Amino acid sequence: MKAEKGDIFEWKKIEDGPEVWKVEITKKNDASRLVNPIKESETKAKEAEVFVLNVTLIEPRLKHPTIFKYFDALEEGKAFQLLNDHDPKPLYYQLLGERGNIFTWTYLEKGPQWWRVQIKKNDPQSGETVGEIAAKDLRKAEVFKKYGIDFCCGGKKSLKQACEEKGIDVALVEAELQNPTQQVQSANNYNAWEPDFLADYIYNQHHIYYYNEVPRINDLFAKVVGHHGDHYPELQTLYSLLSQLLQELNVHFLREERVVFPFIKALVAAKRTGNRDALNSQPSLTEPVRMMEVDHEAAGDILAEMSTITNEYNPPADACNSFQFLYKKLKELDEDLRQHIHLENNILFPKALKLEQELRN
Predict the structure, then answer these.
(1) Looking at the structure, do residues 172 and 240 belong to the same domain, yes or no?
(2) Domain range spanning residue 171?
(3) What secondary structure letter does DSSP report for 113?
(4) What is this structure's pTM?
(5) 185 in a domain, yes or no?
(6) What does the pLDDT read at residue 354?
């Protein structure tokens, strides 16, 4: 009760067994909805006027069901906060996997003693997402890049939400979006492409790039760490992050190539031929796409850490040529992966899911 309602009541034993137990529960006059024992966090939560769930007071087996219960009860556009004694990031991936990309996860405190996260249920009526905006006009994607707004892994957020998280004046960004002046090299109109053609493009442009470049980056990294690892210990951390990223992407790409892309091509074939027999025998594409989006979120988090460690891939002033070249290749990998994720999250997957819905109806 304390975990779910907070310190808003008094508990007084009247009879203590052995046959009957009687307890008097009195609601405090100055009841606060907060459950955070840290005064500073109480003040912040009061200012935000949101409910704070202190996860540390909940029995372990009930933690996730309780959190999901609160999330499911949220109205669209509303939020609540979690207080925990360790990083609750695994919950983020579970929530994303089971509920989909319908929420915004914002860290308000990040340790070392307490972690506080605000979870907001997105409002689908809040306008186009940044991913949708970027998908329609590459010049506007350049505006987002200028302000550091993530339109690939974080593409499901509204412009207002994305700007609030970055502390940017939304009116300023909106003004630039109205008159984008940045010239872009690519003239590809991805939105006009059929899903099967776009899937082939992603494989040939991004998967093949990955398979060709990753061995070279690994060899170069080993050389740089061997020569400079003692002087720059952050290289070891960076290499661990890269290894984790590559391990996850290797599995991810195989799933795309063996499951998701063939499924998308089958959808397009069913549309063209009118034969839906093969489609009727298959489960929905929704769950595989959701798994891909969860993987994309995880990859985006690792890329963000790598960018922070490398000061946005700017090598030290005394870096040798190999060191500089390594950071250049890592930046290229980062940019290629973000473009890859953007094409899938914001164009390919929505088009494929819409097509599947039309065919099944």
Answers:
(1) no
(2) 130-178
(3) S
(4) 0.67
(5) no
(6) 93
Q: How confident is the model at residue 33 (pLDDT cuts 50, 70, 90)?
A: very low
76's tokens: 């669209």
Q: Which two tokens stand for residue 336?
A: 């290629």
338 touches 311 (CB < 8 A): no
Three-state SS at 350: helix
DSSP state letters, 133-163: HHHH-HHHHHHHHHHT---STTTTSBHHHHH
Encode pLDDT of 142-159 as tens digits.
Answer: 888 888 888 887 777 888
Domain count along the chain: 3
- Between 303 and 130, the more confident residue is 303
Residues 214 and 277 in one domain: yes
Q: In terms of domains, do 245 and 150 share one? A: no
Cis peptide leading into residue 233 (ω within 30°):
no
Q: Do both 241 and 351 map to the same domain?
A: yes
**N residues, the chain:** 361
Q: Which two tokens stand for residue 99?
A: 């509920």
At residue 56 the predicted structure's pLDDT band, cuts being 50, 70 and 90, is very high
Do residue 194 and residue 336 come from a single domain? yes
- Could you tell me if 210 and 168 lie in one domain? no
Please give the Cα distance from 181 to 294 (Å, whole number): 33
Q: Among candidates 199, 315, 321, 316, which has minimal Cα distance to 265?
A: 199
d(CA 189, CA 290): 25
Region label for 17, one of left (φ > 0), alpha (ψ between -120 and 50) or beta (otherwise): left
| Residue pLDDT, tens place only, 156-175 | 788 888 888 888 888 888 88
Spatial distance between the Cα atoms of 74 and 71, rounded to a whole number of angstroms: 5
pLDDT tens digits for range 74-115? 988 889 999 999 999 889 888 888 887 788 888 889 888 999
- Note whether 90 and 221 are same-domain residues: no
SS3 15: strand
Answer yes or no: do 258 and 312 share one domain. Answer: yes
